[in-house]
Each structure stands twice: as structure tokens, then as C-alpha cells.
Amino acid sequence: MQHLKKLIHLINQKGKKNIVLFEQLTIKPGKEQSLFQGVVNATFHNDHTASKYLYKSLPEDTRYVILKSRLEAKLLNYLLFLDLTESNQKQDDSAKRRCELLVHQAKLLSRQREYQMSEKILRKAIRMAKEYEYTALQIEAQELLLHIYFTEEALTSYQTLKVQYSQQRQILAAERDAFLLYQQAQLELLQDKTTEDTLEYIYSITQQLQQRWQQFQSFTLFDLYYRLHVRQLELEESYPQLLVLTAMAEEFVKELKVNDKRFNYLHNYRLRLYASLRAGELEAGLRLAEQGIPLFDPSSEDWLGFTESYFLLSLHSKHYQQASALLKQVEHSPIFTKAPVVSKEKWYLYKAFLHLMSVEQADGLPFDYETLRQKLPQSRKDKQGLNIALLLIEFCYLLLTHQKNALTKKAETYKKYLERHFTTPNLLRERIFFLLMLYVIRHNFRIEPIEQKSAKLFNQLKQSLLPRGAHVSRIEIVPYPQLWEKIKEILRQKE
């Protein structure tokens, strides 16, 4: 029943209105149509209710099994008529679907020996596949066309196309080998290891992919090489080099070394902002973000990701007015209401940290930590992710509101959290910061002994590296050294 429900949902969502699934001539609908309508109207929740209504029997009844099989076959055939093009679909995805449809149409015509029409469609498919560098589709269309030339004994056309076909087969073989290398590298990374051996292995695969791209100049080869190279530089914490690579990729597109119809320019732009943030190139990143505003549609997910990097760049560089303006844009954006829960929770935390760092640029309302906690049910489960930021903002809130007793009671909680969850090297900065928080409590919130005792630990924090390959959720919403300075400022004001 689940398969039927999914197929019917897809057909109702994507089906064209001028094509009917069932004949409308009969007064009484047949059992296939009754089963279809029962699923659509949610009359049939499962096989038991459907078989009982249609045959007064159990789902194992042969009549019901055959009926369901016939309806499923009809639905699968109907998939050929669906309009799968979406308004937010990337240009190259839409082109690929059109190209696949052309090849399918040519196959049907060729089977009916309509070679002239089939040849015309295949030539169009080959031009499109070549324009977008769909190697496999180009080969499939060429094979059909070679068959037509062979059947019609068109020797000259056959020999000319055969040369092009042989060249494309070499490229496809290289792409398939490269894809296996890429998959193997990704599987290695799924082990969540960042040992020197792993880094060397990923580097060697990246080099092999680069060599294949340079040899065959295929977009697919470039894409595989580029994606793995980006991941390699993240793992190596080589964010300045990542900035160079992302800028170089855009130059390759301008120089037509990389297919501009397939290259995801918006994703690359977001990657450049991310690299700017991680490399500490804050002012350059802000200038880049300012230039990128016209490129992103405010109703798209790309815009939300772009604005997130822009906001973090503003917050890290202490441009709180800019950060506040971006936050308000997000809160009033329709795309934010459709965002996943975790994405919304991140933005709630961003607002809390902005409020902490600059009350002047907040919305004028007092910071309500309890409301924030209620908005973050998922984040509290992520002990090494956003929950860390939630604990940090809790500490600062209690400090701001002068709740020393509450903080003293939480000292043991922070200590246990530190011991249980900050045991790996990539959480060293979090471990240091929680130790600094404990220093505040143990020295009774007095700034002078805290500064003296924490100096060495604070220097360790400033010199420690950010975790390898961390995702956005692990980016410090406010850099820990900057946050520590804010905590000391609060302590001075409270004395």
C-alpha cells in the first residue's frame, strides 16, 4: 500500500491535467479506479481496509493482489507523462531531463523504423548533451544514431560519428573510474577519521582526479576533483588555500575551461564566504558578501545559506548593526518559515548572541533565556553541536542577570559535561572555554583573580586551532576569545 500511496501522490502532484489515467465513459467506476480513488481520498488507509471494501476479503486474496499489481503497473507507465520540471530546479538538471526525454522519444521512433524522425531528434539530443557535457547521454544518443546509419548503409555519416563516439567512450571510462575513486574517498571520510594517513590518502585521490580532469577536460571530472579538493582543504584547515581554489574555479568558468551551464556559481559563492570566515579574512569576506547580494533570490534556500555566512562575518567582525539588519531580513523572510527546525534553532541562537554582544542593536526587548530554551528542543540533544552554544549563552545570561547562586549550582554540571563530551582533540577549544567558565565560578566572580589565573589558559585558547572540517553548526557563533573578553567585561560591570 505504501508504494501505491507514493506513486499516487507523485502523479497527483506532477501529473498533467490533459491526460487521464482512467476512462471516464463508464457510469460505475471499475475496481482499479475505486482502489485509486480510495487511496486518494484516504478511505483506504492500508491493504486491510481496501481488500475488505473491494472484495470483502483479506489482503492475501489473489484478486486483490492482482488488482493492486495492475494499478501499480498503470501508475508506473503514467510516470512517462509527468512534468518533473520545478521552478527552482537548476538549469542543468532541467536540461538533462529534456535530453533524456529526447533520447527516449528517439528510441520509440527507431523501434517503429521511423528512422528519419528519430535521426532528427537524436541530433538535437547530441547537441544538447554536448553543450551541457552529459557524456553518458551523448554516447547513448550516438549509439542509436550509429544503428540508424548502419541500417540505412550511410557509410560516410557512420564513419564520422564513429570517431566522435570513440572519443566520448574514452571520456566516459575516465569519468566512471573517477567516480569510483571519489566514492571510495568519501567512504573513507565517513569513518570520521582525520589521521595523517587519511589526509594523505585523500590528497592522493585528489591528485588523481585532477590529472584525469586535465587530461580529458570533462565537467564531470572537474566536479569530482573540485568537490574532493574542497573537502581535503577543509580537513587540512587550509582555508586561505580554499579561498584561492574557489576564486580559481570561477576564473576557469570565465575562461571556458569549465562548463558555465553546469557550474554551481551560487554554491561556490557561498563557499567563498565560508572560507573567508574560517580563514579570518573578515573584511574581505564582508566586501564579497556585499557584492553577492544581487545574485541570491530571497525566496531561495541559497539566500538563507548566503545570509547565514554574511551574518556570521558581520558578528565576528563586530559589525553589529549590519548583523542586526540581516537578522531582521531573515525573520521576515517567507523562506525562514519553511526552513528545517535545526536551521531555525541556529538563528534563534544567533539572535541571542547578537543581543549579548550588542544590546544597542537588539530589538529593544530584554533577553528571555527561558523562551530561547523552549525554542531549541533539537539542539539540546546535540551534545557536541548547538547545545554547546546554548550552554554558553545560558552561562552569559546568568552572569548578566547576576544569578551567582544559579551559576554556582551549575558548576558541577559544566564539569561533568566537560569530562563526558569534550574528550576528543577536535573539541579542545570547547574544553578550554568550559575550564574558563569554571574559573569564573571558583574565583567567586571576581575579575582580578580570574584574569590572573586564566591568562595562561586564555593564551592556549587563542593559539588553538578550529576543529578540522567543522560544519557551520560547529562554527563559533562568536569566536571564543571574543566571547571571553565579553564575559570579563560583564564581570567588571557587576563589581
From TrEMBL:
Lineage of producing organism: Bacteria, Pseudomonadati, Bacteroidota, Cytophagia, Cytophagales
Name the UniProt record assigns to this protein: Tetratricopeptide repeat protein
